[in-house]
Design a protein that fits this description.
By secondary structure, this protein is of the alpha+beta class. The chain has two domains: 120 residues, Aminotransferase class 4, branched-chain amino acid transferase, N-terminal domain (D-amino Acid Aminotransferase, Chain A, domain 1, 2-Layer Sandwich); 157 residues, D-amino Acid Aminotransferase, Chain A, domain 2, CATH 3.20.10. It is 33% helix and 26% strand. It has eight helices and 15 strands. The strands form two sheets. Strands 7, 8, 9, 10, 11, 12, 13, 14 and 15 form a nine-stranded mixed beta sheet that branches. The chain has a six-stranded antiparallel beta sheet with strand order 2-1-6-5-3-4. Helix 6 crosses helix 8. The chain is globular and about 55 Å long. It starts with 9 loop residues before the first strand and ends with a helix.
């Protein structure tokens, strides 16, 4: 696989594909001034965009919730992503795309009418989970959830998440599980939470307090397909401390096992048996997804000939 430097990366900006080092966004863009925008992060495996339909549906929900016009059709979105993938040498990538409300020359909290959204997207190599994490898991802490009340919107206003990540760093932890004022567990700093108790997989229900994660959705789907019981219910710190296993799930990291929480071991202190089983099922799901997509592409090409 060819190497590719940052200076060679190609980005998409408002209809143009250009080198990342040449891309420029106005200082009067509402995304820059107010964080007035939404985003998505989409993994790519073997040069195949993964779970496009689910990611696009979530993007549309975020745009609708914030009253930002959707700048592209479904087909145009897919073409944009596939074009970015094709312009880079990495077989496994992740695409970051961001839509802001657009440029408004007079700074005002009230958006002007008929603004044109700013659309920016780029791709990075997607690194595999390290052997050390697979063998030993990660360390996490619990922190108060200081974010806003609409976490189901994938908004670019992520200062609270940055502050929480810094708190993890200061305490020598890899990540944090967040606890709402009512005592319920919400999610990680950039991930959904699962716990295992008596071979049952538990996760907080979708609400405005958490992002409806695509990996969370797929884990639920895969678990049910393999006869693993999944329950969506409110969880508390007591549930965490008595859990046999704890996972954090996200699009770029899939599911990571937490083996130490607040300096105490989780379960045996090693990645658990159900996580190891789910990891195998998830890899198979990815392989089958890519194989099915490539077969469809071949079929379409044959029909066009």
């Amino acid at each position: 696989m060819l190497s590719q430097t940052v200076t060679e990366q190609i980005v998409y900006l408002n209809g143009l594909y250009l080198p990342m080092c040449e891309s420029q966004i106005s200082t009067q863009d509402r995304g820059f001034l107010f964080g007035d925008g939404v985003y998505e992060v989409i993994p790519v495996y073997e040069r195949t965009v993964f779970s496009f339909d689910e990611h696009l549906a979530r993007l549309k929900n975020s745009l609708k919730a914030t009253s930002i016009p959707n700048p592209l059709t479904d087909a145009e979105w897919l073409n944009l992503l596939n074009t970015l993938v094709a312009k880079h040498s990495w077989d496994n990538q992740f695409i970051y795309l961001q839509v802001t409300r657009g440029i408004q020359m007079q700074r005002d909290h009230m958006p002007a009418d008929c603004l044109t959204p700013t659309l920016y997207a780029y791709s990075n190599p997607l690194k595999a989970v390290s052997d050390d994490i697979i063998k030993n898991g990660i360390k996490a802490i619990t922190l108060d959830d200081i974010r806003w009340l609409n976490c189901d919107i994938k908004a670019i206003t992520l200062l609270p998440n940055v502050m929480l990540k810094l708190a993890c760093k200061h305490r020598n932890a890899d990540d944090a599980i967040l606890i709402a004022p009512n005592g319920n567990i919400t999610e990680g700093t950039a991930s959904n939470v699962f716990i295992v108790k008596n071979n049952t997989l538990l996760t907080p229900p979708n609400s405005s307090a958490i992002l409806p994660g695509i990996t969370r959705l797929l884990i639920n789907r895969i678990a049910k397909a393999h006869g693993i019981t999944v329950l969506e219910q409110n969880l508390t710190l007591d549930d965490l401390t008595s859990a046999d296993e704890i996972w954090l799930a996200s699009s770029t990291k899939e599911a990571l096992p937490i083996t130490q929480l607040n300096d105490l071991p989780v379960g045996s202190g090693k990645p658990g048996a159900l996580w190891q089983l789910m990891r195998q099922h998830y890899q198979t799901y990815k392989h089958d997804f890519v194989a099915q997509y490539l077969a469809q592409q071949v079929q379409q090409q044959q029909q066009q000939q």
